[in-house]
Amino acid sequence: MSTTQPHLASHFNSPQQQFDSGKLGIWLFLTTEILLFSGLFCAYAVYRSNHPDIFAFAHQYLNKWLGALNTLILISSSFTMAWSVRAAQLNQKNLCTTLLAITILCGSAFLSVKYIEYKNKWQEHLLPGPRYNPRELPPAEAEALDDQSRDRKGATWEGGAASTLPHGRSLTVAALIPPTETFRAPIGPAGLNPAWVDNDRSSRFSMSWLAPTPSLEPEPNNTHIFFGIYFLMTGLHAIHVLVGISLITWLLLRTTRGDFSPQYFAPIDFTALYWHIVDLIWIFLFPLLYLIGNT
Amino acid sequence: MPSPIAHIVPFKILLRVFFALVILTVLTVTASEFNFGRFNLFIALTIAVLKASLVLLFFMHLFWDKPFNAIVFIGCLIFVALFIGLALLDSTQYQNSIHQQQAPGVQHKPLHP
What we know:
Chain A is built from eight helices and no strands. Chain A is mainly alpha-helical. Chain B has helices spanning 11-33, 39-59, 67-89. In chain B, helix 1 packs antiparallel against helix 2. Chain B is flat and about 65 Å long.
């Protein structure tokens, strides 16, 4: 038994029983993955149902063509992965190796596009929490303003400045504040930060086509929370892609070594299941983050 | 040569599913170009569920598998629905205590206390 079927563990009756047990185990693992992501989907659902305006505004900073490109890349990789399982089952070793390599390339391409997007978000200060400030001035001026606000002078809002705001932004809230009662802008949103009053958007970074300028105005408060959700969801997903690429690289090495046969291809099949779940999550992330529309 | 331990997905089906997924992706991007008002989310999610079903049934073999794997997965989806549904039930309860989308006290912090 052990000589003819070297991969059959002693506690299984047949390769089929071993395969089915392993597959059930992987499905159980995949459900925990779904539950892990469902925490973030829950945060998304709760926040979007309470503040649809933030999502309608902030998603304009995402480039949906890059998102669509990534969707197509991931779908292609799922296709080649499913095909590689078939190739392994049919003992087509060279085809299987090629398909696994293409899958790795697609995964890397996905992460490259994600890198371009993240880098652009970083440069445009489209970041969660206190780092959110897409109307950033050039570093020197920003530093000067920083010093100013540290003196607590620049933070006092002057109602007259409202007329110089770009895009007809109305900040009538400033006029409502009695002069004796001065407020400090909450840390985080650019909301009441005078730093961008004189900012000319055309002087921004050359890569700004990656993050389209929002046409829907005015900007709601706490837009940065969208980016918290965006980075957590896509970041956790990107980590899963990274793990998937590592696993498929391991499969590629084992395939070239000749480890797999029509009787033993479980690692390829199970990794493929994991890879498809990663694709599945992206299938939901893409419309939920990139294609919100003007609801 | 049929594999004795698992069903082999015909290549034709893999290719068709792939093209269906590409077409549905194009469709969802196209649909996002138009404004259907409150149906935007519904349309986007319907297409996403369709795509997910294709991946689950054919790429992930659930169509040919023993139904137990599908039962495990559907059970998981039921718990996800419970989780998100119950969380959404009372998520608007605290909106009254929020002033201009800030937690109480955040915006009315005096500069010079």
